[in-house]
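Let us work through a complete example step by step.
Step 1: write down the sequence.
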Amino acid sequence: MDAEPKNTGGEAEPWGDITPDAARRLVNAAVHAFAERGYHATTTRDIASRAGMSPAALYIHYKTKEELLYQISKVGHERALEILERARDSGGAPAERLADAVRSFVRWHAEHHMTARVVQYELGALAEEHHAEVIAVRKATDGAVRSIIEDGVAAGDFEVPDVRGTTVAVLSLCIDVARWFNARGRSTPDEVGDLYAGLVLRMVGGSGGQG
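Step 2: predict the structure and record it as tokens.
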């Protein structure tokens, strides 16, 4: 499994606000374990070992393995929402805002592809109340992109007969980057972001000249 690359695009590291250091180390260890083995195949002993701690030390900071997954999922989804809301509220033309949203969203999924795999593909393992909370953030994420597309349709800049379906398609395209991105591959996160921004603009019938 490739190591997750260091941030190169100006975004804050996902776990920078988690304290104390031991709790942050456990989250980082859990991300790598879940991304490599899957949530269900990972044990608390696996996570503690990766963090250089004893299994007993893990429970000082997180009561269960699911609580660790919840922390990862919540922070990751909130970071994604911040990225898209910033693009939505930037004040440019719809095509500019949509290109910015896609470029930034894709770059985050590439730069933090291991984190994003866990955030996007392990939702089913969350407890019911945690799942509901994360789904609410996902709906807000959907709403941010849909709002930009609706603005473009209203302005006559986009030709989109099905705004809801197109929103799902755009988000799915961006999220899938986390599944295949390789830090040692030929394309950088910025290059993939630019490519996808152009693809999405053509998808909605907007100008492909952004980025």
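Step 3: interpret the result. Residues 128-154 form the longest helix (27 residues).
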